Amino acid sequence: MKKQNINLYLASPRGFCAGVDRAVKIVEETIKKFGSPVYVRHEIVHNKDVVNSLAKIGAVFVEEVHEAPKDRPIIFSAHGVPKSVVNEAKQRKMISIDATCPLVTKVHNETIRHYNLGRHILLVGHRNHPEVIGTMGQVPNEFVSLIETIDDAINIKVKNTEKLAYATQTTLSLDDTKEILTVLKKRFPSIKGPNSEDICYATTNRQQAVKSMAKLCDTILVIGAQNSSNSLRLVEVALSHGVKTAQLIPDEYTLNKFLESFNPSLTPNLGLTAGASAPETLVQVLISKLKKDFEVNLVDHTVTKENVTFNLPKILR
Ligand code: SF4
User: Fold this and answer.
1) d(Cα 314, Cα 317) in Å, to the nearest integer?
2) I need a surface site. Which of 27, 49, 149, 296 has the fewest CB within 10 A?
3) Do 263 and 231 have their domain in common?
4) How far apart are the first and last CA of the chain?
5) Which of 49, 65, 98 is the last residue of a domain?
């Protein structure tokens, strides 16, 4: 029987960003240098496959510093950590290795600079996300307020509107953040902030690729974890830019479920991307599974090329 045709648009850039790539290498290199086990506070990046493969070579994932023995190295995840966590490792005289993405560190440094200048900081981000906890934890609690929604931006009360700054989580929706910042800048004209928001190049590029791909696709699939802010935003961006359906695919089980119910007559134009913490493996699995059942016309959808790399910390060079 003749296979049915589908167009599969493949977004680029997609998948691993330079910050995730560096964090994974940091764990691998720490194991090479110090032997195993090495301890990693929190998932190094939000992806189970990555975490499991690092666990196999000797990484032990813990939620708090005190869960690791004092005589083994502890690695801080790509999302960054509050100052209190760094201090705890210091007090316990542990070797600590910081895998915080340099673009998150930049936001930490901005936040500290504003605090040193006596400014109250409005951090735009999602409550309880590790990056937000880490950034808020750079300054005393009373100097930072979280802004999650437009309503928060409309209602936030501040003591001194002349001593105010903002910063943003790096993995937010570009469009939602723009709206929130417009409200803040209108309410507080002298608010200080970065020239452009802190949303990183990888988040920006993956969202731009999805936005333009949404014009060509009926359905967009996003490979990425349930707790990956970056991946969840890609699903939202796809839906808000006109696709009929967009779905997060965290694992092969969900992928198979999607394929069981996939009807190419209804959605002959499929788009595929992956969040910044998702390895390419599942993308390739999906392509080969589709090729078994359908005549797949692969369409490269590149919006830009990325050539960002970050150095490893000095201790590992
Ligand atoms: S998504 Fe952006 S901020 Fe997060 S690790 Fe990647 S490059 Fe860094």
Assistant:
1) 5
2) 149
3) yes
4) 57
5) 98
Q: Is the pTM of this model over 0.90?
A: yes
74 in contact with ligand 1, CB cutoff 6 A: no
Cα(192) to centroid(ligand 1), Å: 23
CATH number of the domain to which 287 belongs: 3.40.1010.20
The C-alpha atoms of residue 233 and residue 174 are separated, in whole angstroms, by 9
Atom of ligand 1 nearest to the CA of 308: 7
Residue 295 annotated to the active site: no
| Containing structural domain, residue 192 | 102-199
253 CA from centroid of ligand 1 (Å): 27
Q: Are residues 74 and 46 in the same domain?
A: yes
Quick check: helix, strand or coil at residue 185? helix
Output the CA angle 133-236-245, nearest 5 degrees.
145
Q: Looking at the structure, do residues 206 and 153 belong to the same domain, yes or no?
A: no
- Which one of the listed residues 131, 252, 260, 306 is annotated catalytic? 131
Cα 85 to ligand 1 centre (Å): 20
